[in-house]
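Quarterly update from the structural biology core.
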Amino acid sequence: MKNCQKKTICLIIFSIFLNISNTHCQTKENSSLYDYFDNAVGKDNLNINNGVVHSEPFRTMPKNNRYYIDEFNIGELSFEDEIYADVNIKYDIYDDQVIYKQNGETDNFPITLIKDKVDFFTIKNKKFVNLKSETIKFPKIIQGIYEENFVESNISLYIKHRKEKIKVLQADIVYYNYIYYTDFVIKYNNFFYTVQSEKDIKTIFPSYKKEINDFYKTNKKLEHSDKKQFMENLAKQINGLLRKSSN
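Predicted structure, tokenized:
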């Protein structure tokens, strides 16, 4: 009952706000509108405050952590189809969870958000999407949150950031070390494929074996120094080939 009342109050405030914004805020960005609404309702009443307090239960090695970036960053968050701008977020890639922390006096309590309610978020201009429906359709390929690296109608590239935990014993004290990995997934013809090698790419795009072979030969150094950039360039190259063949 309380949740219904809160939502009703929020809708009334938001409708009033929209009327005000027509005459007062026409030139402002959408993020300003979201901020105004959040402040009017009160950030403590926002849906994103629903979750459990986040903690690190394991003693880690120095300069080692379970996160994409080991600090909170200001980004955008879509939660239950509502967009929140300029929020403090952190991505726990070991548990594949999004951590939210309020600004202000209550920011000492980071919250682990309910994962199924997270739609997407941004960190350092990188967009991460929760592929919820795809996880159900392709459970052996897609699992949870991915970086949306390159998206076109012909081909899309997603990156899975993950960490694995190993136990380390030093001076009779147990520590944990997180090892970072990236996996690559290509979406083509509404199907998802895991990509680990040149052979995998050729299997997906057999008509472009020569072009793919040439790309790998030309970009060997990049493949070893920056695999993410290499895969993005490859996806763009194949997208161009697909466009040409469709004309």
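The longest strand covers residues 155-170.
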